[in-house]
Write the structure tokens for this entry.
Amino acid sequence: MANFQNGINITGSTSFMNLSATTENTSSVGKLWFDHNGQNFKYSGNVTAFSSGGTLITGRRLFASAGTQNAGLAIGGSSSTKCTEEYDGSSWSSGGSLINNHRCNQGQGTQNAAFSGQCDCCTEEYNGSSWSAGGTLNNNHDNGAGVGTQNAGLSMGGYAMFSNIACTEEYNGTSWSNGGNLSTPRGCMGGAGTQNAALAAGGYYFGALNCNEEYNGTSWATGGDLISARRCGGALGTQNSAMVASGDDNDGNTTSTEVYDGTSWSVGNNLIHRGGCNSGTGESSLSGLVMGGNPSSTVTQELTQALGIKEF
């Protein structure tokens, strides 16, 4: 039943919209109200914010990442580096070196079971200490995106012979097989999710794109468009709880982020530092890492969830 004593109760006794106030009622969380002094809407509840994390040992851009906020990996990257770094939630340490130089690579998985694919079609697998050769990709995926796990991975899009490609490949931990093609051929997109529930957001095709596609394990379908076109941004999370962070929006690198709920994108909190050609990894749009970027940055930014107030 609606309770009009202090506002409009939308879903229950602990969630209402106070139409005119200067501060929220702090007896509960999850409230939207209009601040008539500030002339804007404010929300109190679980919000996300970025904070500075540990510094990468080797600055890099155009690299793959894997894992979670407290157990992350940074793999390869610019200058065709072989180095891998492991994150423990506060600092980076050196991990096992890649067998091959990996730049513009894609990968995902966990800190102890990751994969990385490279534009010469080679795949490598990480066991938490060293890399070993994996199955060979069927197609060149330079500047593509990778999602999933070591035994159920996905590689999509990218460039081959200076042309955008639409192909998708699925990995079973041993070999790659062809999956459904992207509707829009492109590279430099953000990838999130799993082999059977993936996102390909943004990218580049004669300019930054705002298109977004969803994969169901067989084929791609059109999802909600990004608010702003962007390419070469970091991405993290799942198909229904994803974030794209920074990237190039045709006007240069941006600090902006967007959050996806499975249907549409909304504006997220800004990064502390710009980071085009950066990388992101994490379990959802509420927790993860965004690190590196132009020009071979060592910056790590942690995305955390906390009780707080967000203005609109």
Remarks:
- The chain is about 0% helix and 45% strand.
